[in-house]
Please model this.
Amino acid sequence: RLYRGNSEFSGIGFNAVDVWMQYLDQGWEHPKGQGRLDAKRKVKMLCGKNVPMVRVMSPFFARWYEEVFFDKDPEIQKQKKLDFFTATDEMLHDFNNCGIYLELQIMFSIDAFADLGHTSLHDALTNLKSLSYQRFKEIAEAIAKRYRGWPGFIIGLGNEWDLFADLQHLNGVLNISDDM
Model:
């Protein structure tokens, strides 16, 4: 159950999959320097439209997390994280100022989860020491710690995590064979 204040909350929201990426403004979807401005226009357009909730997605690809969150150089990584959270803070403030709850999906797809550590999906999900798992944990803990208690905020750990779990897919978690 989801609560807003002391009462149960329900409502229809929608996905704005690229808004978080636009706030990060790395030039992935729009020319660098234009993404955040476009995202702010979208949020402003939603103000006063009785939209209770919007779900935004994290960077779509693991390599994009490497561009905005991780680096081998500790000083560069520190600056990347500062920039990442400055942009995310701004996005949360903008949605909060419009009275819109925001759901942050911090991992767009299960394939991206495995790609964080350049491991197989099976290893990423079953080996708690894998680089994929450790990086995901670092991202999730940093976001949860920073935004704990933030009003109008929900954290989602992933989008469609079970998409390949029960399918005979090249990257599927369950590689069921006839001889099992």
In short: The beta strands are 3-4, 7-8, 14-15, 53-57, 101-105, 153-156. The two ends are 39 Å apart (CA to CA). The chain is about 45% helix and 10% strand.
